[in-house]
Amino acid sequence: MTELNTSNTRLQGKVAIVTGAGCVGPGWGNGRAVAVLFAQAGAKIFAVDKNLDAMEETIRRIKDIGGDVVSFACDVTNGESVAAMVATCKETYGQVDILVNNVGGSSAGGAVALDEDKWDAQIALNLKSVYLTCKHVLPIMEAQGSGSIINTASTSGIRWTGSAQVAYAASKAGVIQLSRVTAVEYAKKGIRVNTVVPGQLHTPMVEVRLAGQRTGGDIDKLLDSRLARIPLGFMGDGRDTANAALFLASDESRFVTGTEIVVDGGMTARCD
Q1: Which of 24, 44, 87, 145 has the most CB atoms at less than 10 Å from its CB?
Q2: Does domain 15-201+238-261 have CATH number 3.40.50.720?
Q3: Phi first, then psi: what are they for 270, rounded to 5°?
Q4: pTM of the model
Q5: What is the DSSP letter of 175?
Q6: By C-alpha distance, which of 249, 236, 248 is closest to 203?
Q7: What distance in Å separates the CA atoms of residue 72 and residue 78, rounded to the nearest whole number?
Q8: Within 10 A of 26 (CB to CB), how many other CB atoms are there?
């Protein structure tokens, strides 16, 4: 697996909470890539996932480069669990400078086909989780007078991307608008809030979960269909999401808030 590369210390002295820092398999999922890249840039990482085992590779990679990392199991759809997670990070490191929300997943189905319980679960996983982490992190950042929040949405939240997944699309659109509203509300308090909008990346989740949902387990067929939508002619992975997030977390983006960086190889710029 190709390594991430950064020789800078753009996040030196910063503490970053990264939710969804685990991964369903080997490779560069968004959360793993963000956690490792931020550690390489000098941040102390508070790595969060519902499943601690899913973070084993993430933690190992950070420790291998001499990074400072603490892992924490948290259900980010549960307010009490999120409150405990944020409090533990504050107790451990004394501050929270960066919050990166990477938890998410999709369920197939339009408004008629999708079951109501799956709708509720999607809204909780993709949107409520962002609301809850922001709710508990923002008071800490406000007291500090600074902070950067980076939320992960999806191109499904801004256009049709090839399949009906109405709850996923609606929740990811909600993440974008939640970020914009929060950015304006907290701008004068020194807190920036932005969104990374990944397109159809080749991450471990694609092979482990999406192929079964959409192409009967035929991974090559799924990858070919996704690749055909991308003008650049190749699929990115979690490292591309992480590079955008690193810019938004760093002081280089000091004049950037309430906006989105689309990381999709040009897919959403197409008219067809």
Answers
A1: 44
A2: yes
A3: -75, 150
A4: 0.93
A5: H
A6: 236
A7: 14
A8: 10
